[in-house]
Amino acid sequence: MKLFLSIVLAGLVHAGYVVQRGTVCHVHAGNDSFDDAPAILSAFDRCGQGGTVVLNDELYHIESVMNTTGLRDVSVDLNGTMLWGTNLTYWRSNGLPLGYLNMTTAWMFGGDRVVFRGHGVGTFDGNGQLWYDFTNGVSNLPGRPISLMITNTTNSLFSGIRFVQSQFWTMAIKNSENVLLEGIYVNSTSNSSAPARNTDGVDTFFSNRITFRNWTVTGGDDDISMKANSTNILIQDSVFHGGLGVAIGSIGQYPGVFERIENVTAERITCLGTRYAGYIKTWTGVQQGYPPNGGGGGLGYAKNITFRDFVLQDLTDSVAHITQCTSFSGAAGGCDTSLFQISDVTWAASIGNVASGYLAKLQCSGAAPCTGIRFDEFDSIATSGTSRTISCSNVLDPVGFNCTT
Predict the structure, then answer these.
(1) Any signal peptide, and if so, which residues (predicted)?
(2) Does the pTM exceed 0.85?
(3) Annotated catalytic, 221?
(4) Is the pLDDT of residue 153 over 90?
């Protein structure tokens, strides 16, 4: 009898494992007490070059960081849920470096000709409520990991993936080119008094020709954000619930470093209760503190930015927003010191309403005034009451509008 029970228990308690058939690796989850990350890493090691990695309709416990880079001609099928562990001390001490802003990630992923499909069901669960309660509103807590970092990735597709309760930013895309991300669902919301702060949907860095299509994002920060050296970015046919809207920046955080954001188009976007439709933010020209929560004094430009065909419902602040006042937490002033140049930005052909009296708040730097700022077809946007304020500072020769304050 004892021998029989031992055999049964041995069958119930096991680590994750890989079944390989040719170039296809199926990852089977282990018992709840085991870390499935080693089995997942093994599958990518075996089938990450010209093969297929399949995560079944199972619950995978991820208790350690993963680095699966250098992939080539690989398909990934995520049919189940990956649940990140609750040992916050481990994650804060062992995150893989983003290589920028002193931030880290729980999973570093990358390669050429990668197809990663979630089929509308494959889920990343970051156990984010633990992080929201732990940080309790503190911005950019050191060691808080990004769920997924896509790095050094080219000619690739990510589709049908769900992200819930992300630990921090949901995704970061760095040093990548010609990548399409479509049908992505993000929902990071807090069920306590602690806000789900810094739960961006995705942030791009040092990347070119990135397309975001058919995203649904509910979060507590930027819905989609372009940061340093993001070029030729297209955002289409997406819905944002809450959050801040489409963000250009922040940028200009490293003193004396030249960076740019250029050729960004966001179109056919629905914003439901977001703070803005599209906005731009740079750091001041005076360094105060160090990244991630401090900095400033950066150089460069943001140009050829277009926000068009937005449907807006109850925006909480304004449709268009520019600020060059970003500084160290709690620091004030320096709004006219940035040398970072903003030019050729258009907000066009949008309908809906703002739950305030402001259509726009445009605070550009006196040291580098904004040029080529254009509004088209704002007549269909309603504001609260009779006020339709467009507040401006250092906006040269506006097109299609007059500053009212």
Answers:
(1) 1-15
(2) yes
(3) yes
(4) yes
